[in-house]
Amino acid sequence: MAHEIAHLALGDARLRTATAAVASLVQETIEALRPSQIETNVYLLPLALIRITALLPIVVLGLLLLAILRATALRQQEYRADATTARLRHDPAALARALRKIDRNPHVRRASYAVSSLYIVCPFLASTYESFLHHHPLTAMRIARFLDLHAD
């Protein structure tokens, strides 16, 4: 709970709202790319191709922007919230134990990608290479980072 309160105190909601808006735009654009009943008519195929040509760059740029946001800004927010929580609770080891316990919970691994940002840990098993696609850094990386900050 302290971790989520740290997100609020640090003003992280603004960036997360912007990220959700970009994701929504990408989703709506993908929906618009689906051919309608009328466009299945062979005579209207050029119109469908024009629409795809116009909208596909929006999807690609949106997905690229989301990947960059997740790999940089959203990750930094998680690290800052962890550091703030550890500092406020005066017990970084307790936060490490809690994150490990949550990370090992098998129910966490059943999350869908759509709600993965709502979890305090990344609900997907991923290698370090794959983890750049997720909102949350790998739990082991988070723990190592804030324990290093509070090692003194």
Describe the structure.
The chain has 152 residues and is mainly α. It has 2 domains: 2-71; 74-149, no CATH class. It is built from 6 helices and no strands. It has helices at residues 2-9, 13-33, 45-71, 73-89, 92-104, 139-149. The longest helix is centred in the middle third of the chain and has 27 residues, at 45-71. It is elongated. The chain starts with a helix and ends with a helix. 15% of the residues are buried. The mean pLDDT is 76.
Report the end-to-end length measured between terminal Cα atoms.
Answer: 25 Å
- Inertia-based shape: elongated
Order of helices and strands: HHHHHH
Main beta-sheet annotation: none
Q: Helical element count?
A: 6
Percent of residues in helices: 55-70%
Structural class: mainly alpha
Quick gist of this model?
This protein is mostly helical and 152 residues long. 64% of the residues lie in helices and 0% in strands.
Features:
single chain, mainly alpha
Topology:
Layout lengths: L1 H8 L3 H21 L11 H27 L1 H17 L2 H13 L34 H11 L3
Helix pairs in contact: 1-4, 2-3, 4-5, 4-6, 5-6
